[in-house]
Every structure is written in structure tokens, then in C-alpha cells.
Amino acid sequence: MKCLTFSFLIILIVFIATTFAEKEPHRHKGYKHVFHDEYRKYLDAHPSKNHHEWSEERKFRREQRFNQTLEWIKNHKKNHHPYDVGVTRFADVLEEDLPKYHGLDESQNRHQRALPVINPLTSPPPASLDYTSWAPPITDQGKCGSCWAFSTIGMLSTVYRYTSNKVWNYSLSEQYLVDCDAFDNGCNGGWPKNTLLWLKNQSSLIPDSASYPYTSGTTANRTACKVTGLNKIPLKLTNIYQWNVNGNETLTKQILYSYGPVVTTMSVPLNCTAFYSYKSGVYVDNCNCVSNCTLVNHGVVLMGYGTENGLNYWLFRNSWGTTWGNNGYMKIARSSLNKCNMACFLMGIEQ
């Protein structure tokens, strides 16, 4: 009987060890991970991921995450949804790495002096609004928490192009803000209101991107502030506003109609495959995105609103390049629940 018990224990130990080895082979000494064809093709299409620098464990986990995303996408497409999904740059990104692609620091909103809440007084806003035809090309913040800089530049560029009928047509430098803005914290986050105030303190001048190109998307770090050899563009920043709308959809539409595109804050859950895989249609949150304005983690440019197939939506411009979303844009469901906190803090300028 003892021999049978001992034999059973040996078999059980071998079974557990084998199962562990199959699930987590990267934990074994000398393990070398070999990518499968589908994932290798994906990496070849995304050379900026620099997978040659990954540890064997990271290679294993990234491919595992990629396979999980493919399976989720396949299951999503089996059912009817008002939005479509696909393979994006985030298909293999681990949850702990996703904050690098955001960068909104809500704590800096509380620590800086408050700006007045303005109630715009104009005619009622139209049923739909879309400023995208005035916007510059979509940009890409990369793996640097600089959404605060990109949303600020995206908003300013679109407003100036709109109000000048595209006579104003400069490409402004996000890297200048990442490196030099003393009110924000480079790749570790910031708050667009602070960015606008800092720019105003610099005589409302900012270099163009040709004389100060963006590099932090690959390095994930700020560099020493460059002060020479810059072609600086004058900005008009007479009045800078932050509106704390607290989910008020009517007021948000009114501000967007009265002042043009504005920076808006939002909450993106880190475990939300649906959001990171979005391609087109009206995104209806299914990731339990809570309505709490203290939990915002990403800054984007609110470009309009409308209705599609009976669903009301907000239209925003992101800073994740053109391979995410509908060429860099998203339509997200607009409702009184203020899902994903799209209507919490708006920041903009008066022309």
C-alpha cells in the first residue's frame, strides 16, 4: 500500500511539473523562445517594438498576449456589435506597459491654480458637429506618457487651422513640451491646462516639429531642453479656459460649438481589449469604465459629436498613430452616464 501511495505521489509530481513547464516554459534555465509565424509577421510589421531587446520571458508573455487578443477578436466578430475591431499595435502589449501610452496626471489638476468655469453664450449647438477636416495629420506619442502634450498640440493646431481657413498651417513640436515644460513631467505625465499656461509664460512661442522633432516615442524619456537653432511659431493664447463640466452633455456640446475643438480627459481601463482593438463604428463600452472624474488617465482632442445607426457618439482624435481606430479617431457612445468620463474636464482657448 505504501508503495502504491509513493508511486502515486511520484506520478502527481511529474504531472504538475509537466503542466507547469507547458504553461510557463520561460521559467526554465536556458529557455529560448521561438516566435510562431503569425506573431513573427506581426512583429515584422511593427519594427518599433524592438523585440530583439526583450528577455525570453517577455517574448513568451508578449506572444501569449497576442494569441489571447486574436482569440478575443475572433469571438467578438461572431456577434453583432455597433463597432468593429482588429489587430492593432496593442495586440501584444502587456497590461503593465499600457500606462506608457497614456500620460494624464490628474493630481496636477488639483495642485495648480484653478481657472474659471465659463458658460458660453451662443446659439444652440447643431445636431452634429465635426472638425476633423480642419485637423492636421494624426500623430503618435509612442511609449511615452505624453498624451498631455499631443492633445494640447492637436487642439491648438486644429483651432488655428479652422479659424484661419487653413492659412495657418504649421506642425508644432510635442518634443519641446516633453523636454522643456516645467509645469508638466515629460513622459511621466502632465495636465493640458498647465501646458497652455506654461506656453503663455514663454511669450506664446513654440518651435515647429522640423526644428525640434519628436524622439521620446521610442526612447520613453525626455531629453535636455533644446534652446538654440529653433524655428519658433507665435501662438495666440490670450484666454485659456478649463471647464469642469462634470458629465453635462449639453454644456459640453455648447463649448465645442462655441470654442472649437477642445482637449478632453477620459478614462481608459488597462484591461480593455475592446478599446485597444477598436477600428470603426460607435464604441459601446463593455469594460466597466466607471463614471468618476477623479480617475481620468488619458487626454485626447474632442472633435465633434453626432448620431450613427441610432447611437449618439462623441468623436475624438487620439495620439496613437493611424493604425489604431478609424485612422486615429474614435466614435465613443455618448450618454447621460458619462461612460469613460468623456465629459469631465475640457480645456481650450478663445480666438
Automatic annotation (TrEMBL):
GO MF terms held by the record: cysteine-type peptidase activity
Keywords: Disulfide bond, Hydrolase, Protease, Signal, Thiol protease
SMART domains: Pept_C1
Record-annotated Peptidase C1A papain C-terminal domain positions: 125-347
Domain of life where this protein originates: Eukaryota
Pfam families assigned to the protein according to its UniProt record, in alphabetical order: Peptidase_C1
InterPro entries xref list: Papain-like_cys_pep_sf, Pept_asp_AS, Pept_cys_AS, Pept_his_AS, Peptidase_C1A, Peptidase_C1A_C, Peptidase_C1A_papain-like
GO biological process: proteolysis
Signal peptide positions (record): 1-21
Protein family: Belongs to the peptidase C1 family.
Protein name (database record): Peptidase C1A papain C-terminal domain-containing protein
Source organism per UniProt: Polypedilum vanderplanki (Sleeping chironomid midge)
